[in-house]
Design a protein that fits this description.
The complex is a heterodimer of chains A (about 325) and B (about 280). Chain A is an all-alpha fold and about 325 residues long. Chain A is about 75% helix and about 0% strand. In chain A, helix 5 (about 85-120) runs antiparallel to helix 11 and helix 11 (about 245-275) packs parallel to helix 12 (about 285-295). Chain B starts with a helix and ends in a 7-residue tail after the last helix. Chain B is built from 10 helices and no strands. The mean pLDDT of chain B is about 90. Classes of the chains: A mainly alpha (about 325), B mainly alpha (about 280). Chains A and B meet through helix 1, helix 6, helix 7, helix 11 and helix 12 of A and helix 4, helix 5, helix 8 and helix 10 of B.
């Protein structure tokens, strides 16, 4: 219990620093917020009026508290380029991105976990050396470059998968309550839309997952190797447990937990990396929204994206840490 | 340099060393070797495939791709180097300070570093670019801002370990000053661990810089930064594959080589990862 409270306190501290960073970015570093808010063609009188209205003549820490207050009420300001409340924009753009990241994470886990386990079991074998080399190559791949090549070769030249977008033209009118098309289509019992959405997701998800999978394999391997060296493994073997039982019953559950922490962090990083992929595949989403906002110099929209990805990151880490804690019997006794 | 060569145990590692050396030479002298002006637009010779005159073809504005790669090496690698030098120096200072002072200050600094470490650098950089205006400098600042805690944490860990050794106790008994302790005992002993980390970070930072340039918040088109070159060539990928392939391959080969070298250095220098 103490652990949970400490962990939540840490998340709140993180949130505070995140808010401070976004405040500094949007209110201090970006220049006079009144000029920013007034838009490019405003006169001096309008700017001064806005300055009063926005409380910019108040001391900076009071401004910070006002800023935090409005964020906590869910008010992120209004975007110039969509002319809509930013919070509303983000709610619309988040589901497609989360859908992409979840699938990429699934690919990541499906490759990292077994490969990490096997290379740890057969550490320093020929196979391990080969995987290590592939992994180092993967960690050197520019995500956006691989995305362009996959799109051109797999979708463009071979025509195996759709080139861009979220759905085919025939399904363009589909929409659902959650905005997660994979989920919505199943909910509506529409299998063809499900596979259509999945086909559109596949290439971007693979491109997005490659770099993270490379790191994932290494982390899992390291963590599994540490498990294989422990006494209980020797004991299990001495008691005559088969190698499969040692690997899957003993080593895997124990070795997977520390790796989970890293995968939790990767979730937030992946959401950040959607800026490199969504634009290429013409998918709506938070990454594409962020790029559009940057090119339109819409500072508040950009900072809102920074904030929301930071929050997703904090929540993902909190959930994973509590999960890891719940899974680990040793910590339960100590806490 | 020759020490590095003796570390290499396989042809893959030797190749990586050669590639890395070539890329560094390219960054230093590439501008002198470029056969054409990397920024000169000539629409009459646009999207020419590789030929004896233009070894890597020309891009959508008729610029020589090879010349742009050679000149661009400097932008990509120099930015990476600047980020790493600043981040390692600053992180080291914070880490050593934190370990030496200890107690509540140490605890607070490391909590701060933990919080910081989390945020995706790419997104933070977007925020920086929006606040400062998009440029290579803004991208460099953003990466410095988000990367230093890695080094603060690492250096603190290593320093705490060094401080617990016997030679520090003897130095204390002899009345060695703090400054001398840092420069004569801590830094030399932490060097191996740090150099491994720096080498492994080269690829990550290079990918981040080129990624930022690709999405338009780092080096701006038409500058021949490798990521910006890929962004520029994107619309020609169907009929001019070399425009996108060449800079991407350069980024990949450089990052891959430094990953291999980092892995090799860790094996040779880091005692905790020795093969059993």
């Amino acid at each position: 219990m103490t652990y949970a409270i400490q962990r939540i306190a840490f998340s709140i501290l993180s949130l505070f620093i995140l808010l401070l960073t976004t405040f500094l970015l949007s209110h201090v570093m970006a220049g006079d917020p009144a000029i920013v808010a007034a838009g490019p063609n405003a006169g001096a009188a309008k700017i001064e009026a806005l300055r009063q209205q926005m409380g910019l003549n108040d001391p900076i820490f009071i401004q910070f508290f006002i800023y935090c207050g409005s964020i906590l009420r869910g008010d992120l300001g209004t975007s110039w380029f969509t002319q809509q409340p930013i919070a509303q924009d983000l709610l619309r753009e988040l589901p497609p991105s989360l859908e992409l990241v979840l699938l990429a994470m699934l690919i990541n886990l499906a490759v990292s976990m077994p490969l990490g386990l096997i290379t740890a079991r057969y550490a320093h074998s020929k196979f391990d050396d080969m995987v290590r080399l592939v992994v180092m190559a993967g960690a050197g791949l520019p995500v956006f470059w691989i995305a362009i090549l996959l799109q051109q070769i797999v979708a463009g030249n071979w025509g195996l998968l759709p080139i861009a977008g979220r759905l085919s033209f025939a399904n363009r009118s589909f929409s659902g309550p959650t905005g997660f098309y994979l989920f919505d289509s199943l909910l509506a019992g529409n299998v063809s839309v499900f596979f259509d959405a999945l086909a559109h997701l596949l290439l971007p998800a693979i491109a997005l997952s490659l770099l993270f999978t490379a790191v994932g394999v290494r982390i899992t391997r390291t963590s599994m190797i540490n498990e294989f060296r422990k006494d209980y493994v020797t004991l299990a073997r001495a008691k005559g447990a088969g190698e499969a039982r040692v690997m899957f019953r003993h080593v895997f559950p124990n070795g997977a937990t520390p790796a989970l922490t890293v995968f939790g962090m990767q979730f937030g990083w992946m959401l950040g990396a959607t800026v490199l992929v969504e634009e290429i595949f013409g998918r709506p989403g938070i990454g594409r929204y962020a790029i559009k906002a940057v090119t339109q110099s819409d500072i508040h929209a950009v900072v809102a994206v920074v904030l929301i990805i930071g929050v997703v990151f904090l929540v993902a880490n909190l959930l994973v840490d509590i999960l890891v804690y719940a899974l680990s019997p040793r910590k339960q006794r100590a806490g | 340099m020759s020490t590095l060569w003796t570390y290499a145990r396989s042809n893959i590692e030797r190749t990586a060393l050669i590639v890395a050396a070539l890329v560094i030479l390219m960054a230093l002298f590439g501008g002198l070797l470029a056969p054409f002006d990397p920024l000169k637009i000539d629409f009459r010779s646009k999207i020419l495939p590789p030929s004896p005159e233009h070894w890597l073809g020309t891009d959508g504005s008729g610029r020589d791709v090879l010349s742009r790669l050679l000149v661009g090496a400097q932008m990509t690698l120099a930015s990476t180097a600047v980020v790493l030098v600043v981040v390692a120096t600053f992180g080291c200072a914070v880490g050593i300070f934190s370990a030496l002072v200890g107690g509540a200050v140490d605890n607070m600094l490391m909590r701060l570093a933990d919080v910081w470490l989390g945020f995706p650098p790419l997104i933070l950089a977007l925020g920086f670019a929006a606040a400062l205006g998009a440029s290579l400098e803004a991208a460099i600042w953003a990466l410095i801002f988000s990367w230093w805690p890695n080094y603060a944490r690492l250096t603190r860990m290593v320093t705490v370990d060094i401080l617990s050794r016997k030679f520090i106790a003897s130095a204390d008994a002899l009345g060695v000053g703090t400054g001398a302790k840092i420069f004569r005992y801590i830094l030399p002993n932490a060097f191996d661990v740090l150099i491994v980390q720096v080498t492994l970070d080269i690829s990550a930072i290079m990918l981040a810089i080129s990624g930022l340039s690709f999405i338009g918040v780092g080096a701006q088109i038409p500058l021949p930064e490798w990521g910006a070159m890929i962004a520029d060539g994107r619309s020609y990928v169907a009929n001019g594959w070399w425009i996108v392939l060449a800079p991407g391959l350069m980024i990949f080969l450089t990052a891959f080589s430094f990953n291999i070298i980092g892995d090799m250095l860790r094996r040779e220098l880091d005692p905790t990862s020795r093969r059993r």
